[in-house]
Amino acid sequence: MSSLPSSLPPTLPSSSTTTKPDTFTFPLIHSFPPFYTLQRTLLTLHSQLTKWSILIQRYHAHHHLYRLHLPTALASPLFHNTTIHKRLSLPSLVQIIEYMSIPEKDGGGGQRAEWIHTGGKTGEKTEAWIWWRRPEEWAELIAAWVEDTGQKGIVLTFYELVNGEAVKGEEWVGMEEHVLARCLAGLVKRGKAQVFGEEGEKGVKFF
Q1: What share of the chain is helix, strand, coil (3-state, %, to 5)?
Q2: What is the pTM of this model?
């Protein structure tokens, strides 16, 4: 199984309890009521947004989730702590994801989220990709696995890469085809891979 790179977010201090049947251990700050109200002081707000970003990434990495539908997610244990009766608001979650989508050099969260354009109302922000590994990080990880397993120059179907027996235990198991294609795009652009076929029947060859 591939090891985690240093690019993954650090772990926040954790409590000793978990949410059953969920095995994810929430950090102590998840039980701190003010955490659910975004603050106005810029320094405090930045710290709060950073902590939310780390938590969202860790939660998605733990559950192998890549897509976040904001209105639906608000009812999940990630954003709704029933023990202390606190829930994050939709505008606050939009602000957090917006922060995550901005490059670090521009004061953002390092492009750890990307808005998905669903074709709804113009400017509507209801769904996003959560990049607990950025697309280029996934691409390098998968390319390294292909090289380690001696499969360069062989056409592999997208299905094999995300659901095949050979990748069991790897972090990208179950990855959506659209996410895989997005991750491989950088390798294709650099001439390190070639993608074949139509949606649902795609394959890729690594060079």
Answers
A1: 40, 15, 45
A2: 0.84
